[in-house]
Amino acid sequence: ERMRSGFSIIEMLVVMSILILLTSTLVLYNRAGERQIIVLREKARLIGTILRAKSLALNTLIEDEPACGYGVHAEEGTYFIFSDRAIDCGTSAHIYGSSSDEIVLDSEVTLDRAVLFESIGAADMLFVPPDPKVFLNGGTALDEGALVIATEDGTSRGTVTITNAGQISER
C-alpha cells in the first residue's frame, strides 16, 4: 500500500473558508469599534470646549475690557467659542451672531468627517459671569440643551447635555 501524504483539495477549501469567515468577522468588528472611538473622541473635544468657555467666563472679571460672557456656538459640522462683546450686557441677545461678537482665537473645531451633529438642542450656550449664569439659545427658559454626535450611518451616537445651571453630562 502506498502512503498518502498531504491534504486533499476538500480539506484545503474547508480550512480556507473558515479563515475567510474569521477574518471578515474581525474586520467588521474593528470598523464598529473605530466608529465608536471617533464618537467618544468628538464628545470629549466638545466637552473640553464647553468647559473652556465656562472658564473664560469666570476669568472675565480680571480682563481690561471684560466681555459680557463667553459661549459655544454649534452649527452643522463645527463649533467654536465666542465672546459676547455687547456694549450693554443687560440688553445683549446672549447668542452668537451680532456684529459685536468675536470668535475666540484657535477655538474653532471641525467634527471628524465620519461624524456629524444629529441634533443640536442648544446652538448657543453662553456663560455670563460671575456665577456663571447660563443662557441656552439666548434665554434661561430652556432647562437643558443636548448636542447629539452620530456617525453618518447612525450606528453609533453620543450625547452631550448642558443644563441651565451649567452642569455638563454625557451619555
Layout of strands and helices, then pairs:
Elements (H helix, E strand, L loop, with lengths): L8 H50 L10 E7 L2 E7 L17 E2 L5 E2 L4 E6 L3 E5 L4 E4 L7 E8 L5 E7 L4 E3 L1
Antiparallel strand pairs: 1-2, 1-6, 2-3, 2-4, 5-8, 6-7, 8-9, 9-10
Helix content: 25-40%
Rg on CA atoms, Å = 25 Å
- Strand residue content: 25-35%
- H and E order: HEEEEEEEEEE
Total number of strands: 10
What is the count of DSSP helices, taking H or I runs of 4+ residues? 1
Broad structural category: alpha+beta
**N- to C-terminal distance:** 70 Å
Describe what this molecule looks like in 3D:
The protein has 171 residues and is α+β, with helices and mostly antiparallel strands. Helices cover 29% and strands 30% of the residues. The chain contains 1 helix and 10 strands, in the order αββββββββββ. The chain has one helix at residues 9-58; strands at 69-75, 78-84, 102-103, 109-110, 115-120, 124-128, 133-136, 144-151, 157-163, 168-170. The strands form 2 sheets. Strands 1, 2, 3, 4, 6 and 7 form a 6-stranded antiparallel sheet that branches. A 4-stranded antiparallel sheet has the order 5-8-9-10, with helices on one face. A hairpin with a 2-residue loop joins strand 1 and strand 2. The longest helix is centred in the N-terminal third of the chain and has 50 residues, at 9-58. The mean pLDDT is 90.
